[in-house]
Design goal:
- By secondary structure, the chain is an all-alpha fold.
- The protein is about 60% helix and about 0% strand.
- It is built from five helices and two strands.
- The chain has a two-stranded antiparallel ribbon with strand order 1-2.
- The longest helix is centred in the last third of the chain and has 67 residues.
- It is flat and about 100 Å long.
Protein backbone atom coordinates (compact mmCIF):
# COMPACT_ATOMS: atom_id res chain seq x y z
CA UNK A 1 0.00 0.00 0.00
CA UNK A 2 1.15 3.57 -0.59
CA UNK A 3 2.47 5.47 2.38
CA UNK A 4 0.80 8.68 3.48
CA UNK A 5 2.81 11.66 2.22
CA UNK A 6 1.89 13.61 5.33
CA UNK A 7 3.45 10.94 7.53
CA UNK A 8 6.82 12.06 8.94
CA UNK A 9 7.91 8.49 9.79
CA UNK A 10 10.25 6.60 7.52
CA UNK A 11 9.01 4.22 4.85
CA UNK A 12 10.31 1.23 6.80
CA UNK A 13 8.32 2.18 9.93
CA UNK A 14 5.24 2.90 7.83
CA UNK A 15 5.30 -0.48 6.11
CA UNK A 16 5.89 -2.30 9.40
CA UNK A 17 2.91 -0.67 11.11
CA UNK A 18 0.44 -0.94 8.21
CA UNK A 19 0.69 -4.64 7.37
CA UNK A 20 2.14 -7.72 8.94
CA UNK A 21 3.31 -10.89 7.29
CA UNK A 22 0.70 -13.51 6.62
CA UNK A 23 0.97 -16.87 8.41
CA UNK A 24 2.21 -19.81 6.34
CA UNK A 25 -0.42 -20.98 3.87
CA UNK A 26 -2.57 -17.84 4.22
CA UNK A 27 -3.12 -15.51 1.30
CA UNK A 28 -4.37 -12.45 3.14
CA UNK A 29 -2.83 -9.48 4.88
CA UNK A 30 -3.43 -8.68 8.51
CA UNK A 31 -3.72 -4.97 9.11
CA UNK A 32 -2.70 -3.47 12.40
CA UNK A 33 -4.71 -0.33 13.01
CA UNK A 34 -4.48 1.26 16.39
CA UNK A 35 -6.43 4.29 17.55
CA UNK A 36 -3.41 6.17 18.78
CA UNK A 37 -2.17 9.64 18.06
CA UNK A 38 0.32 8.11 15.59
CA UNK A 39 -2.49 6.88 13.33
CA UNK A 40 -3.59 9.90 11.29
CA UNK A 41 -6.85 8.25 10.24
CA UNK A 42 -8.21 7.56 13.72
CA UNK A 43 -11.00 9.63 15.18
CA UNK A 44 -10.11 11.85 18.11
CA UNK A 45 -11.27 10.25 21.34
CA UNK A 46 -12.17 6.99 19.59
CA UNK A 47 -10.09 4.94 21.98
CA UNK A 48 -11.63 6.54 25.05
CA UNK A 49 -13.82 4.35 27.23
CA UNK A 50 -17.11 6.21 26.93
CA UNK A 51 -18.96 3.99 29.36
CA UNK A 52 -16.49 4.64 32.15
CA UNK A 53 -16.93 8.43 32.00
CA UNK A 54 -19.19 9.99 34.60
CA UNK A 55 -21.97 12.04 33.12
CA UNK A 56 -23.74 14.63 35.22
CA UNK A 57 -27.48 14.95 35.10
CA UNK A 58 -28.71 18.10 33.38
CA UNK A 59 -29.82 20.74 35.83
CA UNK A 60 -32.37 23.53 35.57
CA UNK A 61 -29.50 25.99 35.24
CA UNK A 62 -28.31 24.15 32.12
CA UNK A 63 -31.80 24.38 30.65
CA UNK A 64 -32.06 28.08 31.46
CA UNK A 65 -28.74 28.73 29.70
CA UNK A 66 -30.26 27.53 26.42
CA UNK A 67 -33.03 30.17 26.50
CA UNK A 68 -32.29 33.33 24.55
CA UNK A 69 -34.03 36.69 24.47
CA UNK A 70 -34.64 36.25 20.73
CA UNK A 71 -36.84 33.24 21.54
CA UNK A 72 -39.29 35.52 23.35
CA UNK A 73 -39.08 38.26 20.73
CA UNK A 74 -40.10 35.87 17.96
CA UNK A 75 -42.62 33.64 19.76
CA UNK A 76 -45.51 35.15 17.79
CA UNK A 77 -43.94 33.88 14.55
CA UNK A 78 -44.34 30.22 15.52
CA UNK A 79 -47.29 28.37 13.99
CA UNK A 80 -50.41 28.05 16.17
CA UNK A 81 -49.01 30.28 18.92
CA UNK A 82 -51.31 33.22 18.24
CA UNK A 83 -54.43 31.05 18.32
CA UNK A 84 -53.25 29.35 21.50
CA UNK A 85 -52.55 32.61 23.32
CA UNK A 86 -55.85 34.19 22.26
CA UNK A 87 -57.81 31.15 23.39
CA UNK A 88 -55.91 31.08 26.68
CA UNK A 89 -56.58 34.78 27.31
CA UNK A 90 -60.28 34.27 26.61
CA UNK A 91 -60.44 31.23 28.87
CA UNK A 92 -58.58 33.07 31.66
CA UNK A 93 -60.85 36.11 31.42
CA UNK A 94 -64.01 34.00 31.41
CA UNK A 95 -62.96 31.66 34.24
CA UNK A 96 -61.49 34.38 36.45
CA UNK A 97 -64.50 36.63 35.83
CA UNK A 98 -66.99 33.90 36.69
CA UNK A 99 -65.07 33.06 39.86
CA UNK A 100 -65.01 36.75 40.89
CA UNK A 101 -68.73 37.17 40.15
CA UNK A 102 -69.55 34.08 42.20
CA UNK A 103 -67.77 35.67 45.16
CA UNK A 104 -64.53 33.75 45.27
CA UNK A 105 -61.56 35.53 46.85
CA UNK A 106 -59.39 37.46 44.42
CA UNK A 107 -56.40 35.12 44.92
CA UNK A 108 -58.54 32.08 44.14
CA UNK A 109 -60.10 33.74 41.07
CA UNK A 110 -56.63 34.68 39.80
CA UNK A 111 -55.37 31.14 40.37
CA UNK A 112 -58.28 29.76 38.36
CA UNK A 113 -57.61 32.33 35.63
CA UNK A 114 -53.93 31.35 35.38
CA UNK A 115 -54.85 27.68 35.24
CA UNK A 116 -57.47 28.32 32.58
CA UNK A 117 -54.96 30.35 30.56
CA UNK A 118 -52.38 27.57 30.70
CA UNK A 119 -54.87 24.82 29.88
CA UNK A 120 -56.66 26.80 27.15
CA UNK A 121 -53.41 27.85 25.49
CA UNK A 122 -52.01 24.34 25.56
CA UNK A 123 -55.21 22.71 24.34
CA UNK A 124 -55.68 25.16 21.46
CA UNK A 125 -52.01 24.92 20.44
CA UNK A 126 -52.20 21.12 20.32
CA UNK A 127 -55.51 21.22 18.44
CA UNK A 128 -54.03 23.62 15.89
CA UNK A 129 -50.92 21.46 15.47
CA UNK A 130 -53.13 18.40 14.90
CA UNK A 131 -55.15 20.26 12.26
CA UNK A 132 -51.93 21.33 10.53
CA UNK A 133 -50.65 17.74 10.55
CA UNK A 134 -53.92 16.42 9.05
CA UNK A 135 -53.87 19.18 6.43
CA UNK A 136 -50.25 18.39 5.54
CA UNK A 137 -51.03 14.68 5.15
CA UNK A 138 -54.01 15.55 2.95
CA UNK A 139 -51.83 17.79 0.79
CA UNK A 140 -49.29 14.98 0.42
CA UNK A 141 -52.05 12.59 -0.69
CA UNK A 142 -53.34 15.16 -3.20
CA UNK A 143 -49.82 15.74 -4.56
CA UNK A 144 -49.29 11.99 -4.92
CA UNK A 145 -52.62 11.64 -6.75
CA UNK A 146 -51.78 14.57 -9.04
CA UNK A 147 -48.39 13.04 -9.83
CA UNK A 148 -50.00 9.71 -10.68
CA UNK A 149 -52.55 11.49 -12.88
CA UNK A 150 -49.78 13.43 -14.62
CA UNK A 151 -47.84 10.24 -15.34
CA UNK A 152 -50.99 8.53 -16.61
CA UNK A 153 -51.83 11.51 -18.85
CA UNK A 154 -48.29 11.57 -20.26
CA UNK A 155 -48.51 7.85 -20.97
CA UNK A 156 -51.87 8.33 -22.75
CA UNK A 157 -50.46 11.23 -24.79
CA UNK A 158 -47.47 9.15 -25.82
CA UNK A 159 -49.71 6.26 -26.86
CA UNK A 160 -51.89 8.69 -28.86
CA UNK A 161 -48.79 10.13 -30.57
CA UNK A 162 -47.57 6.65 -31.47
CA UNK A 163 -50.99 5.72 -32.87
CA UNK A 164 -51.11 8.93 -34.94
CA UNK A 165 -47.57 8.36 -36.28
CA UNK A 166 -48.44 4.80 -37.18
CA UNK A 167 -51.64 5.87 -38.93
CA UNK A 168 -49.77 8.64 -40.77
CA UNK A 169 -47.03 6.24 -41.93
CA UNK A 170 -49.64 3.76 -43.19
CA UNK A 171 -51.45 6.54 -45.00
CA UNK A 172 -48.20 7.68 -46.67
CA UNK A 173 -47.46 4.18 -48.04
Amino acid sequence: MAADTRDSRSTKESSESSATTAPAGKSFETFNYSATSENKNSLPGANANVLAEKHTEPAIVDALKTIKLEDFKEVHKKPCTREGFLTGIGAAFATGGVQAILGAPIFTACSWAVGAFAFGSFAMHEYCQRKRKIEKEGMQRVNAALLEKKIKDERNREETRKARRKAKEEANR
